[in-house]
Specification:
single chain; 14 helices; 9 strands
């Protein structure tokens, strides 16, 4: 990088980074989120706060902060949903790089400086994310999320899951525009679909440093929302595989949201869909429990029982629901409740398998609980 100024001291007259921050009813957290961008050591940015029809004081709070810093702008929009708001942010961006930011997260001060340096040193990489600290509603640290870093590791992981934490990313706007931005069919997994399409042309990476304090509260989806996210993820993977094999992308030029019927029409077996949805919901309940959100984990675990599945999958649905409740109970150190839930889960399995599940699971929960005390 030429010139006499360091990257952190570049003039703000022409922004190098456009930070896109969608806003909806976040009056408790929006000022903190904006201030975390204002405190960046890298100063050549603009912050685009896009209000998606908030009904609380969020836009007014954001506007007050914008009055203190000309780099911050607030745009009031008619409510159209997150995907349309993100695409509006891309359209309004004036910089070469676009960063994502969520309304309840906090970017650490060196985030943009480190990520801009990475992209300028790695011209073949289109997207760079980073690690994140997961915090609860009170700001207490629960765990860290550390995705794979190298382009090879990220590409390998993307085949199964999103290997980049969306609100940590810095992207080349030209690359995102080239693949068409965010797409409507992949509701609640629009970021994963974008990563897959970008990965077909460019490299994606993460830096190992923690760049964000990530609010676990933003991950508290209802069962219906969580199920939609899983269906959209599976749909994104299906479309990715079709493109890799030079076949028609069934989502191309379509606004139809991915659903069970959509997946079945595109060749997926109904029982396979059931297995994926229920197991992924159980995984999410476990993640919430590990993040300290035990009430939310239990709500989701109970909700697994409400997911519609084919008759041949009702036992596995009940088993995973009970097993997930057992995980939350273990975090609460309710050993008796763990034993009851494991026993009930074991009853859904064949004899022999049931015994191994019960006694093996109980030993595992006991050992983990004693290790955490």
């Amino acid at each position: 990088m030429g010139g006499d100024k360091s990257m952190a001291d570049r003039s703000t007259e022409s922004p190098v980074v456009s930070v896109v921050l969608p806003l909806y009813n976040a009056e408790e957290t929006i000022e903190r989120a904006i201030e975390s961008i204002r405190k960046q050591t890298f100063t050549a940015w603009e912050l685009l706060v896009l209000d998606d029809g908030s009904t609380d004081r969020s836009p007014q709070i954001a506007q007050v902060v914008a009055g203190r810093d000309p780099r911050v702008t607030v745009t009031r929009l008619e409510q159209s949903g997150l995907i349309a708001t993100l695409n509006r942010g891309l359209k309004d961006s004036n910089a070469e790089y676009v960063a994502r930011m969520d309304q309840d997260d906090v970017s650490l001060p060196h985030r943009l400086e480190k990520q801009v340096a990475f992209l300028e040193q790695n011209p073949g990489v289109a997207v760079v994310g980073g690690a994140a600290q997961v915090v609860d509603a009170h700001g207490s640290l629960n765990q860290e999320r550390r995705p794979p870093c190298s382009p090879t590791e990220v590409a390998r992981a993307l085949a199964e899951r999103s290997a980049i934490i969306h609100p940590t990313v810095l992207m080349r706007r030209g690359a995102v525009d080239q693949v068409g931005g965010y797409r409507t069919p992949f509701l609640a997994a629009e970021d994963y679909d974008l990563w897959l399409r970008l990965s077909e042309r460019y490299k994606l990476a993460n830096i190992p440093e923690i760049v964000l304090r990530y609010s676990a509260g933003g991950s508290q989806l209802s069962v219906i929302q969580a199920e939609q996210q899983i269906l959209s993820t599976v749909g994104a993977q299906l479309c990715h595989q079709r493109r890799l094999h030079c076949e028609k992308d069934p989502s191309a030029n379509s606004s139809e949201v991915v659903s069970r019927d959509w997946l079945i029409r595109n060749g997926m077996d109904e029982c396979t869909i059931d297995d994926i949805v229920v197991s992924k919901l159980a995984d999410r309940s476990w993640w919430l429990a590990e993040s300290g959100l035990l009430n939310e984990a239990e709500v989701l675990a109970h909700g697994i029982q409400e997911v519609k599945v084919s008759p041949s999958r009702t036992k596995s649905r009940r088993f995973l629901s009970l097993w997930s409740l057992g995980r939350a109970a273990r975090k609460r150190r309710q050993i008796r409740r763990v034993a009851v839930l494991l026993f009930q889960a074991a009853l859904t399995s064949p004899r022999g398998v049931a015994e191994r599940l019960f006694f093996g699971g109980l030993r595992k929960f006991r050992s983990r609980s004693s290790g955490e005390s």
